[in-house]
User: What shape does this take?
Amino acid sequence: MASRIVKIFRSALGRLGFGRNGHGISRGRPMAYWQAMLDGSILPDAVYTDWVNESSRLRKADMVARARWFEANSALANRLARVFVDYTVGPNGLLCVPNSSSERFNNLATEIWRATMDSIFLRPLGQNGWAGALSAVAWRWFFDGEIYLYTGIRRDGSPFVQAIEAQNVATPPRKTANTIVDGVEIDRETGEPLAYWVREAGGSFRRLEAAQVIHVFDPARAGEYRGTPLIAPVLSDLLLLADLEMLERRSLQAAADLAVVLKLNAGEFTDVDIRAQLLGFAADSPEEQAQDISARYEAYKKIMGGRTIALQKDEDAQIVVPNRPSTEQLQFWTYLVDKICAGVNTPSLLVLPPRQAQGTVVRAQVEAANNYFRSAAQVMMGVVRRIYEHVMRAVISLKYQRLSLPADYLAVSVRAPKQITVDAGYTSAAMINELAAGATHWELIYAPMGLDAREELRKKADLVMYIRQLAEERGLNPSEIASAAGAGVTINRRSLEQDNTDSSNGGDA
Assistant: This one.
């Protein structure tokens, strides 16, 4: 019978065109695939084809919808996203340092950028400034797999950036699918995106040139035009964890509600029975009834506290003691949480209270996480670089048309956020040693903290000059003031010796 069903299935596939010349006409799968699926030797959803043939808007919509559900309902998913955002864009946003060949223009570009960065994003995304907008972009990248940033010019000539969520980029009706892949219009010869079709509020579509759109995503395949949620590999595990949590919660609620199990001979002694005996409808005498009821009430109060029921002769009451989750269940939960964290390249020690672990193992996990976050930060740094270039072009063309610009006036250094550290003292000492040996420089030290090295060194120089002036006024040694004030300023010993020599020579004269 089974072989007959297989033959019928093969015949139906042949009539539909599957298996013709060894391949299917609609799915691109050979006949051997369908036979293997019937045998149960391969996964039903496994495919081996180009991304364009494999992708499906319905499949992506399902993944994003599930990811957003966990965004709204899972504390673990939110914590993973928070860690990703913190170490991808940082709490202060990514720092831009103009890096052209002209130091004079760099100072001007710094002023332009600082005056524009907090208002560049349109509201409501931009209401929290530059850092808040970048955090929101990275957050949507984590759960949606992508987000689009349209770089435009306002009517007054000032630049702006408008965020467009993934569901609003789609193929318009009555548009050929040969040149538009899920809302992305492509060049069939080169495969380069030419434009993006965006669905607007009224249902109409607007075509945006690709040069004006920053597509924030991390393609993993050639020909991949839409992003996949970073949390996609663990959606099934998050669902399993949610189901287990729900079952455990129901078990605990049931155990809390059913605190006592009664073993009765003739059923529970109800309130109606008690009232019947009190009213004289029972066979026993009133004295015996009252004594029996009083004794049974007192006995049950010892079991249930304020809530009381009555027990008949030879009946038993057993207290239900919850014993879940068991050790095996806790171990499986731990394994599942570790698996989910590993699926998004984040050590579980950054998400949950750390368990006991060897220091070397912890440092190895942190180093691996730093490598991943550094790689993810490169995507956001490229986004920030394009936004900076958009701002510079717009503002300079609006206000500084006659300014002589260096050839590399758009050059900028975007610094990655601060990395994870498990030993601040060790890291600080190593950084000081590297600075003394010339293996690093001030910009690499200040940038992860969201600070501009040039400005901080200028502040340091001003502070040193102020300490020297104050020491001269008070007749003190500058090092004494710096040490007493705790300013953390190192006074050059050679300059101090020179100051002392000059003052002694002046006294002799």
In short: Residues 15-28, 484-509 have pLDDT under 50 and may be disordered.
